[in-house]
Amino acid sequence: MFKKVNDEAEVFQIIAFGMAALTRGIEKLPPRLRTRALKRIDSKIMKLQAEAMEEQARADK
User: Fold this and answer.
1) What 3-state class would DSSP assign to 29?
2) At what angle do helices 8-27 and 31-60 cross, to 10 degrees?
3) Considering 26, 32, 39, 55, which has the largest number of Cβ atoms within 10 A of its Cβ?
4) What is the pTM for the complete model shown?
């Protein structure tokens, strides 16, 4: 399902494509659902960032 990516630029490109697709999809939702979707996405991003920071801290030890 996931492909190992070693190039940081490729990671950012994948994220950019995903964000663009999400934005197009979310714009089509009714306002209440759009707000809920954005909140859920934001919380997922925060969770992933926290996990990445923990992993980086472990790698730095």
Assistant:
1) coil
2) 160
3) 26
4) 0.53
